[in-house]
Amino acid sequence: MGEYPKLMMLQTCPYCWKVRSLLEHLKIDFSESQLNPLRRKKSLKFAGDWGKVPIWRESEEDFVIDSTPIMLYLDKKFNDSKLSNENLARQEEWLRWVDEKLSKATIPILYGSIGSALSSTRTVSKLEKFGFFSRHLYAWTGFPIMWGIIAKTRVKKDGRKPKQLWHDLLDDFISEFNGKEFFGGDKPDIVDLAAFGIVRSISPFKQFKQIQSHQLGMKWYNAINSTLN
What class is the 88-225 domain? Predict the structure, then answer.
């Protein structure tokens, strides 16, 4: 496999997991270009003001930004839009839900207390491509406390513990299946894979066990997981 195509990414970015899950589901060959989080903007200068991951890059000049547009592009190019060509209005609504509701729930569960924030930042420091000193600085200094305070404020404002928030969101999602195995019916569609990617982004962290206690959610999650490489 050559350098391209490649996914420019961070290991713990929920939106990168969305794209990775689609790539693996469709068995598309690609390279992972894992960035140093502290040097991300410098590495992405070619993309202008975007400055965020994921970016799907097929050459020096050809690239697609933002997770949902990337997924739609890949489905069209490699799969004749088979994951995203039915009931487009419903899919668009729930793709927004994934980004506006489900993805936002990652912060409370990972950083909703000082203890969980410290644990999560230690995990991030091991998974991401930091330099030696920046890794320890990230894991042990003000960042865990800052995130712990911010996320704790979000939890307090919502009024639900992170576990309850996730279970409620999974209930809402699965209620849209209409008795089928997936949101897409008898097989996953692009919404299934987008939602799966967000849930999957929590899997490297110990807090994932709070999500695993949702039986129907895990039945759906494991069914999607079985389609990947």
Answer: mainly alpha
How many CA atoms, within 13 angstroms, populate the side-chain half-sphere of residue 119?
14
131-184 pLDDT, tens digit per residue, is 766 766 666 666 677 677 888 888 888 999 999 999 999 999 999 999 999 999
What 3-state class would DSSP assign to 216? helix
Q: Sign of torsion, CA 188 190 104 119?
A: positive
For the entire predicted model, the pTM comes to 0.92
Name the residue with tokens 């990972």.
Answer: 110
Q: Are strands 6-9 and 55-57 parallel, antiparallel or unpaired?
A: antiparallel
Q: Which CATH superfamily is domain 6-79 in?
A: Glutaredoxin (3.40.30.10)
Cα–Cα distance list, 134 to 31, 36, 159 (Å): 25, 10, 35
